[in-house]
Amino acid sequence: MRVAVHARAIDVALDALPSEWLGTTFRNENLLGREAFASALNDLVCGIVESGASEVTTSALEALGVAEDYLRVASNLSVFLELELARVAGHGDVRRVFSFASEDAPASCALLSTPAKRVTFYLGVGKLWGNEKIATLSAFTGRTIVVKRGVPTSACRDDDDDDDCVMMVRAGVGVGDGPCDAAFLRAAAAAGVAGVVDGSDLHVLDQSKLPPEAVATARKRAATPATHALALFKARSVVHWSPYYDPVRAVNADP
Length: 255
Fold this sequence. Notes:
- The protein is of the alpha/beta class.
- It has two domains: 112 residues, no CATH class; 121 residues, Rossmann fold (3-Layer(aba) Sandwich).
- Helix content is 44%, strand content 10%.
- The two termini are 12 Å apart.
């Protein structure tokens, strides 16, 4: 039942978004920063779930403050999405999840963020990148890029130098249309993957190879977070995707 209440609380919150959240610049009287805002939002939602209620009001959301004062850095709605993705990922830490406005941006920002000079991307069974794309990304980021088919396993650790950064692009690996869950990310981390590109989202697994602060800076300078429309659509989808979040299956699941 708590799962159903959580999903309902998120749905109600997304229907009650303050108009201020949907701009491109935001008043900074109560500027919290991305992580502190996520913590305040999490406390609000968890309080609703703990109380057994399902009502999140516009005024309660307004009282939270703002994550950042410019959309290009973060918006309340993009952080809302990232918090829900972090929940599904099993850790709840928005420092390790970044949304973007395009599916090309996560890989570019990962390349800009890693201290490694060589980055290997595993593309599953997806289409291999063309030489022109690889050359453009390499010139833009100053990194040597290696592209491989397949999914990395623990054996891949022996194939790659410790100074390399191993990335995985989730598209085409046959895991369905939902977001990355905890089991998927644990398996990737066990294979030595530093980060997973999941559509227009980036999951950080190894913070030494992919420092979150560097990713945040790269996104601010070279990309943008998820747009309001994209964040709204994906946030609403995430809470109803998996058995953990689907209210019907959760309520009727076998004990």
